[in-house]
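Fold this: Agmatine deiminase family protein
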Amino acid sequence: MNPSVWRFPAEWEPQSAVLIAWPTEDTDWAARLGEVEDTYIALVAAITRFQPVVICVPDEDVQSYAFVRLASNRIDMDRVQFVEAEYDDTWLRDSGPISLRREGGFRLNDFRFTGWGGKFDASRDDRLVGHLHGACVFAASAERREINFALEGGAIETDGAGTLLTTWRCLHERHPDVARETLTAQLSDWLAQDRVLWLDHGYLEGDDTDAHIDTLARFAPDDAIVFQACDDPADPHHVELRAMAEEIAALRTHDGRPYRLFPLPWPQPVLDAGRRLAASYANYLVINGAVLVPAYGDPADDAAAAVLAQAHPGREIVQVPCRPLIWQNGSLHCITMQLPDGLLRARPG
């Protein structure tokens, strides 16, 4: 690869940190804040075993509170960095920077975040990347590029070698008047991709994102795709996810070979006051030396971890309790954004 050309790194490439935002009573987590905080503590504990984490907080009081909660759980606070920033909610996969890199620098693609097509207020979230850039969170070599186009990080998946995977349902919902060919060209340009692979099938009940790819299918190293399967013919997802699996099986690598496929087991339905929640094992996070896997207290949790161990050999598999997260229709990957190696500005001292 030409080191002078922009490239969108794969998630399994070296990282400098993971970016998250602390849940507060001013976010949608307010009604179940205690449970969600416990999940965040478990997440930070898992990340800091392997690398730093950057935590957005709205003010000094929340920072002090979060510090005490984390430190009391014996987390390595030398690997925790706080930054004050305004945010509406904590889904940083969708409001955080989509980072490209080349020799000597980084580009922070700052797309419009519209609250998943205007479903929720997101004015503060939409300013988050600009705020973090202005606060010198990132290396001096990082340039910010504003792009007046609605796109969430959870809607796209890259193999780091020029192939993007996404869903037509989501992108068409955001941009109903734009043809697929135009969207393909735009995404290829902005994200430095050679090609875009589209999935026309796949969804989860309770999903606000209009079928984000990171709830359905993910690239893995060495031309592999991990995807959420459904083996229960009585489940309403069965037909759609089977059609998605057939689409994925028909995809080809750059050199024309089928992808190696890793279907994930299907968790039992999780209901909240009769509402089905969007539980997906595809919403995992890859970090340096590990894969963090959402666990839902389901018999399939261990089987999902085993599949991901096969798809990401050589990495430790760490289960993180994520049942509280799906109450708000997202999971582990949705609340995180990895920062490629070198992107985080070194702290003094």
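The radius of gyration is 19 Å. The chain has a mean pLDDT of 97.
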